[in-house]
Design a protein that fits this description.
This protein is an all-alpha fold and 498 residues long. It has 16 helices and no strands. The longest helix is centred in the C-terminal third of the chain and has 43 residues, at 455-497. It is globular and about 60 Å long. It starts with 14 loop residues before the first helix and ends with a helix.
Length: 498
C-alpha cells in the first residue's frame, strides 16, 4: 500500500466527472504509446545516418526527420506532462473537461499536419525554422510544406494556450495569484496551505504562456513576410524562436518535477510540503527562465553584449534553485527510508538524477568561454538529451507507471522492474556518452553524414549503436508492461462510466 500523506482538503467531483478525467488522462497517455516509438525510430535513423549506413541518402530526409523528431518529442512530452499534472491537480482544483477534450482534438490535428509537412512535404528547416530559411529553401521543399508546418504550430499553440489559461482559471478559483505563488510563505505565513504541485504548476503555466505569446508574434511576422512581402528582422526572429523553444523545454522539465514532488512522497512516506525556501526557489525560476535563453545566441555577435552576459548569469543562477531544493530535496526524502521501489518510484528518482547530470553539462555549455568551443558540436545534443531523455522522460514514464498501476490494480514483477531500469540506464547513458565524446572531439552537429575528414563522428555513432539497442529494448519492455496495465485501466475506467 502507498503511504498516506497529509494534504490540503480535496475538491469533490461527481463520480462521472472523476471517471471522465481519468479516462481522458489515459487517452493522453495513449498518444505516448503511439508516438514515442515512431519518433524514437526517427532518432535511430539519424544515428544510423551518422554511422554511414546510408551513404547515398538524400540529406533532405535526414533534416526532415530531424525536424519532426525535435519538435515532436518536445511536444509529446509537454502534452503528456501537462495532462499528468492536470490529473494530479484535479484533487485540489477543477479544470474544465471540455477544454481538455478540445485541446486533445486540436493537438492530434496539429500532429497530423506536422507529419504531412515533414514526411510528405519534406519540410526540413529544423524545429528552430530560422527566418528566412523556411520560405527560401532553394527548392529543397515547397512553400506549401512551410505553410502546413506553421499552421500546425499555430493550432498546437492555440490548443495549449487554452489548456494553460483554463488551468490558471481553475487555480484562481481556489487561490489568489499571490497565494498560488506562495508569496505568503516568504512573509513567514503558512496559511492557506499550498501544495508544491500548485506552486510549481502555476510558475510553469505562467512561463509557458509567455512562450506561446512569443510564438504568436513569430508566426505573425512569418505571415507578414509570406502574404504581404514585409520582411522581418532575422535577429529578432531568432530571439523569438529560441525564447519559445527554450521556455517550452524547461517548462516540460518542470512539469516532470511537479510530478516528482507529488508522487514520490506516496512511496517513501514523507510529505513534501511547501516552505519559504521552496517558494523563493520557484519564484526565482519564474524570473530567471525568462532570460536564460540568451545562452543560445552567443554566436550572434550583433546581439548586445549585455544580453549575452545576462544569459550566462541567468543560466548559472537558475541551476541553484533546482539543485538546492529539488535535487537535494529528493535525496533527503529517500535517505534512510524504507520506501517501496516500484517501477514508478524508481523512474522518478532516476529522472531526478538525470536532470542533475544534464544540468551540470548545460551549465558548462552556457559558459561563454566554453560555448565558443562546444556550441556547434555534438556536446549540445548530449546535454540536452541527458536532462530530457534521462530526466523528464523518465519522470513522466514514472508517472504513467504509477497511474496505470493505481487504476489497473497491477504492478510489475520486481525482476522485470530491475531489467527495465538496467537497460534504460546503461543503454541511455552509454548512448549519451558517445555524444559527449564526439563533442569533446569537436564533431559538429546538424550534419546528415560525416565526410572522411570527420571520421571520428562516424566511429562515435557506430559505438553508440549497441547502447541504443539496449535502450530500445528497455523502452520496448516498458511500453509492453505499462501498455498492458494501460489497457486494463482504460477498460476498467470505461466500464465504470457505462
Amino acid at each position: 500500500m502507498m503511504a498516506e500523506i497529509a494534504l490540503p482538503a480535496e475538491v469533490e467531483w461527481a463520480p462521472a466527472e472523476r471517471t471522465a478525467f481519468q479516462r481522458l488522462t489515459l487517452a493522453w497517455g495513449g498518444t505516448l504509446f503511439v508516438l514515442f516509438p515512431v519518433l524514437g525510430l526517427l532518432g535511430l535513423f539519424m544515428r544510423l545516418s551518422h554511422a554511414n549506413f546510408f551513404p547515398d541518402l538524400d540529406p533532405i530526409w535526414f533534416y526532415a526527420a530531424l525536424t519532426l523528431h525535435g519538435v515532436g518529442m518536445v511536444g509529446l512530452w509537454f502534452i503528456t506532462g501537462f495532462s499528468g499534472v492536470l490529473y494530479l491537480l484535479s484533487r485540489y482544483v477543477r479544470p474544465s473537461l471540455a477544454v481538455s477534450r478540445l485541446s486533445f482534438a486540436l493537438t492530434l490535428f496539429g500532429v497530423l499536419l506536422l507529419v504531412i509537412a515533414t514526411l510528405v512535404g519534406r519540410f526540413a528547416a529544423g524545429w528552430y525554422f530560422l527566418y528566412p530559411l523556411p520560405y527560401r529553401s532553394g527548392g529543397a521543399w515547397a512553400n506549401w510544406a512551410t505553410d502546413v508546418y506553421l499552421i500546425a504550430l499555430a493550432i498546437l499553440g492555440v490548443a495549449w494556450t487554452l489548456w494553460a489559461l483554463d488551468l490558471l482559471r481553475a487555480i484562481a478559483q481556489r487561490y489568489r495569484l499571490s497565494q498560488a505563488l506562495c508569496w505568503h510563505f516568504l512573509r513567514g505565513e503558512t496559511k492557506p496551505e499550498v501544495p508544491p504541485l500548485i506552486l510549481i504548476t502555476t510558475v510553469s503555466t505562467i512561463a509557458s504562456l509567455t512562450g506561446f505569446v512569443a510564438a504568436v508574434i513569430l508566426l505573425a511576422f512569418f505571415a507578414a513576410d509570406r502574404f504581404a512581402g514585409v520582411p522581418a528582422d532575422p535577429l529578432l526572429m531568432k530571439n523569438l524562436v529560441f525564447y519559445f523553444g527554450h521556455v517550452l523545454v524547461n517548462i516540460t522539465m518542470y512539469l516532470g518535477v511537479a510530478m516528482l514532488y507529488d508522487v514520490l512522497p506516496q512511496y517513501v512516506g514523507r510529505p513534501w510540503k511547501t516552505t519559504a525556501t521552496t517558494a523563493f526557489a520557484w519564484n526565482a525560476v519564474l524570473f530567471l527562465v525568462l532570460f536564460a535563453y540568451f545562452h543560445h545566441l552567443y554566436m550572434d555577435f550583433a546581439q548586445p553584449k549585455a544580453f549575452q552576459v545576462l544569459g550566462q548569469v541567468a543560466s548559472y543562477m537558475i541551476s541553484l534553485p533546482a539543485a538546492v531544493v529539488s535535487i537535494l530535496g529528493t535525496l533527503a526524502m529517500v535517505y534512510r527510508t524504507k520506501g517501496r521501489w516500484t517501477l514508478a518510484s524508481s523512474l522518478l528518482f532516476a529522472g531526478t538524477m538525470g536532470w542533475a547530470v544534464g544540468g551540470v553539462a548545460a551549465v558548462i555549455d552556457s559558459t561563454i568561454a566554453i560555448n565558443f568551443r562546444f556550441h556547434n558540436t555534438l556536446w549540445v545534443p548530449a546535454h540536452f538529451h541527458t536532462y530530457f531523455l534521462m530526466g523528464v522522460v523518465l519522470m513522466i514514464m514514472g508517472f504513467l507507471a504509477h497511474l496505470t498501476a493505481k487504476l489497473s490494480g497491477r504492478e510489475e514483477p520486481p525482476a522485470l522492474r530491475r531489467t527495465i531500469l538496467t537497460l534504460l540506464l546503461v543503454g541511455g547513458y552509454g548512448f549519451l556518452l558517445m555524444f559527449y565524446l564526439a563533442g569533446a572531439h569537436h564533431v559538429p552537429r546538424r550534419y546528415a553524414a560525416y565526410p572522411e575528414e570527420l571520421a571520428q563522428g562516424i566511429l562515435d555513432a557506430r559505438l553508440s549503436l549497441p547502447f541504443i539497442a539496449l535502450l530500445s529494448i528497455g523502452i520496448l519492455l516498458y511500453l509492453v508492461e505499462v501498455g498492458k496495465r494501460w489497457a486494463v485501466a482504460f477498460a476498467t475506467v470505461g466500464a465504470r462510466s457505462s
